[in-house]
Amino acid sequence: MSVTIYSAQVVGLDAQPISVEVDIAPGLHIFSIVGLADKEVQESRERIGAAIKNLGALAPHKKSQRVIVNLAPADIKKEGPAFDLPIALGYLLASGQISFDSRRTLFLGELGLDGNLRKTAGALPIALAARLAGFERLVLPEGNGAETAMLDGLKIIEVKSLADVVEYLSGRKDIQPLARVAVENLAQDYPVDFKDIRGQEKAKRAMEIAAAGGHNCLMSGPPGAGKTILASALPSILPPLSFEEALEVTKIYSVAGALDHGQPFIQHRPFRNPHHTSSHTAVIGGGSYPRPGEATLAHRGVLFLDEFPEFDRRVIESLRQPLEARAITVARTHGVQTFPAHFMLIAAMNPCPCGNFGNPTKDCVCSAGAVSKYTKKISGPMLDRIDLHTELPAVEYEKLVGGEAESSAQIRERVILARNAQERRFRNLPVRVNAEMGLKEIKKFIPVADSLRQVLKSAHERHHLSARAYHRLLKVSRTIADLEGSADIRPDHVAEALQYRPKVET
């Protein structure tokens, strides 16, 4: 007898429905799983046999029984333990030990030897694929359902064990679908607030401009000047995630298995802070079967690279393409995957290896060659892709003991107003913020008035701006104008944007 149960396989950041076909026939005993299944799937035979035996049912180990499991389509690599539950149910259904309608239900879950179910990665993209394919119900392990509770149009059934699934499908146990949770109603809480940071007003202003326009920023200053805490506070002034963005980010974390048990879906914009010893694969993504890296985990949020020059040069240079394309394409022998990487790059570095170059109160112990070698670790093309460059001096005592600074909530209000202006400007376009504008959008939305031509000409000649740097100057100026609620860019907006260009242009 042959039956078909439905499951799914995550491919990249999306899922593909998989038909689990189980055929039982008399003959020499065999339990074979075919359909390009990897080792984890092949090992499921032992887990499934023990789980069914502990359920009190007849396990697939009869000497006169041939059990063939086909995972279709066969050209998609099947990996992970999530096929345990559908294969077990397929066997029980094909052997006549249970009876239910499997046509509109999708199953996934890893089985323990005792029949209990364990969480698996990728529940959210699987739920999205199930809804798109027209399935009415998704049955998954307890703990996996919370990340899918933001979806409507699909019944999410959480179960603890194989026994629970059998009882539920047989109609002997009632399990209510999970209630839908509205992401918009979740509270926002941030660990660092701008009101707790003393001094560094210019750097704070750079953070505000970066947040308003989605710009990249490089901070340079001595150790202890506040670079790390300023970067950590940046998410607190960013607009909250929209429902579509929250769904997009949560799907990435679901596939990566990085969802926190207490946070089933992402409420805040991601803030990723990889260590400078992180490998190229860890930051960019990859592997034999491509997986997302830190750049993709920072999607719709912030990728903070502290001690920027200390990162491997391959890592730094690999970020050049994602900063322009907002995506990362990883090509491997087993396939090509494109991962979204729409992040704000915030980098921090010391002025030299010892950190005291240019410090009026401390002597620098680095040689001229060491300083030059340190700064040249960041290539010109990479620096050219960073919109805002700001230097942080050491904080004076008077500022450390001064009163409270402006809060993140106050700054966020201005940022949201500026973002709203950009949303109206780019309506019906794939562009969302000023930093994403291409040449066509710059020409259309940033006309250069006669009053700006002389200012821009002087800036181009004095700073030796490349074409990319010139266009980034215009985009930053547009963001500054948006923060002031100005419809047009004025010379003072360009002048402020010029303050955030590096001293020596690349």
The low-confidence runs, each spanning 5 or more residues with pLDDT under 50, are: none
Shape: elongated
What can be said about the biggest beta sheet? 5 strands, parallel
Please tell me the CATH architecture of the largest domain by its name: 3-Layer(aba) Sandwich
Strand line-up of the largest beta sheet:
11-14-17-10-18
Structural class per helix/strand content? alpha/beta
Précis, in short:
This protein has 20 helices and 18 strands.
Describe it.
- The chain is of the alpha/beta class.
- The protein has two domains: 2-169, 2-Layer Sandwich (Ribosomal Protein S5, domain 2), CATH 3.30.230; 194-428, Rossmann fold.
- It is built from 20 helices and 18 strands.
- It has helices at 39-42, 44-55, 84-94, 123-132, 162-169, 201-213, 227-233, 243-256, 280-284, 294-297, 313-318, 320-325, 368-375, 380-384, 397-400, 408-425, 439-445, 450-463, 467-483, 491-498, and strands at residues 2-11, 14-26, 30-34, 65-72, 105-107, 110-111, 117-118, 137-141, 155-159, 217-220, 271-272, 285-286, 291-292, 302-305, 327-332, 335-340, 344-349, 388-391.
- The protein has a five-stranded parallel beta sheet. Strands 1-2-4-3 form a four-stranded mixed beta sheet. A three-stranded parallel beta sheet has the order 5-8-9, sandwiched between helices.
- Helix 6 crosses helix 19 and helix 18 (450-463) runs parallel beside helix 20.
- The N and C termini lie far apart (71 Å).
